[in-house]
Amino acid sequence: MANASESIPRDALRANLNQLDALLCDVGPSEDRRALARKRASMQSQLNAIVYPVLTLPPEVVSEIFLHCLCDPRARPNVAEAPLLLCNVCSQWRTIAILTPGLWSRLELTFKFSLFGTCFIDLLALWFSRTGSHPLSLSIFYDEYTATNRREGIIQLVKVLMRHDHQWEDVELKLPDVSEFHQFRGKFPGLKRLAVAPHSAKPLTPAVTAFTRAPQLTNAQLSAGCTLKPIVLPWTQLSVLKCESLHVPDCLSLLRETTQITELTVYFKPAHRLIPLSPPLLLPTLRFLHLLREECHMDLLQHLTLPALETLSISFTNPDIPRFLAFLSRSDCPLQRIIFDAWPFEQRELVKCLVALPSLRELKLWRPQYFTDSFLCQLADPAALLPNLQTLELDHVYPIQFTMPALVGMLAVRWSAPVRLETFRTVLHKASTVIDPESVFRMQALVALGMKLHIEYH
Description:
- The chain is α/β, with parallel strands linked by helices.
- Among the domains are: 4-56; 336-458, Leucine-rich repeat, LRR (right-handed beta-alpha superhelix), CATH 3.80.10.
- It is 34% helix and 18% strand.
- It has 14 helices and 16 strands.
- The protein has helices at residues 4-26, 31-49, 59-67, 84-87, 91-98, 113-129, 150-162, 248-255, 297-301, 321-331, 347-355, 373-379, 404-415, 437-449, and strands spanning 106-111, 136-142, 168-174, 193-196, 219-222, 240-246, 263-268, 281-282, 288-292, 304-305, 311-315, 337-341, 362-366, 391-397, 423-428, 452-457.
- Helix 6 (113-129) runs parallel beside helix 7, helix 12 runs parallel beside helix 13 (404-415) and helix 13 (404-415) runs parallel beside helix 14 (437-449).
- InterPro entries: LRR_dom_sf.
- This is F-box domain-containing protein.
């Protein structure tokens, strides 16, 4: 933008140019028209001579500003967003944008070879050519399920990607079949995170070993059909692992190799066979465990000892409280945060579990079926139950089986406890919730003192 002193002559020049353009349309060929044309050319030269302050910034400063225009972790090519938008402003900005590798190093795209053909491959190669040696964050979704042209498209896509294998840092690959990953033959010295997701998985021999040559790979996400046998990773160096559609025995087999793992997320397959009992597997570094979909969780936990576990997220349908308590006792872990989803237990079973978790700082209950005044009364005794609790969250509580005075009373006691309950969040069903004025007044008083209360109605 021009500064204030330049804005007036600039605006006046533009207004005069518009007036001259109107006059030129009305005047036929004559000496007057030639005079008007000369006057217009002079004004246009004056306007062109105005230098906008932003264009006087050093290129490296403009380049840094451009990098802050990238809103998303990965950008889909869009002429209305950076970096393509920046290339359309002026030639100077276009040059700076093209010479800023960080603008081009993050990319998300969906590719259909049958629609775009080789022109898409050429554009992708041009895009990557602007990345220099900058680390790449990529999400490539090859959306081609049929065999027509699929092979040719994947071959060309892989060729472009492999020219830059030394730049891979955070890469998601979604290809039609797990066998397609055999084409990735290279070295990935900077690869830190890899997500692999074929549309379909077939029995594969031999296994894909290309990604074992990734000395910095510590974070892996493997969808259905990729785990264990089809794709081999440097398991011993992984610290974060997410797997889909695993049986418990396969999960245990995998965990025996991931000796440095700190975070594990598993979507289980329904069990189809008995799991033989074996000594629990000790994982001394695992701190975060997320067990999703509601099958086989206890079957896994009874085979694990996790002395460093801090966060546990788990869904329940057919709970086995004795096995869960045995896991907690055996692990003797410093659990700080628990998320229980679809808790179907009676209140006394929930209390049994919570009594075994004195270190807990954050408790989140999704769809709790038993949350009553009686339970709130027990929570109002911090010395006996969850003495270190600082955050409590209840999500989708329905039907409501507690009263607001009991809830507010518990919150008040917890606020005054040696370890304060600092945050309370809940989502309630509006039709079954009655909030009396006295409870509202007491909650407002707690908020004034500093408690963070978030109550939503659906």
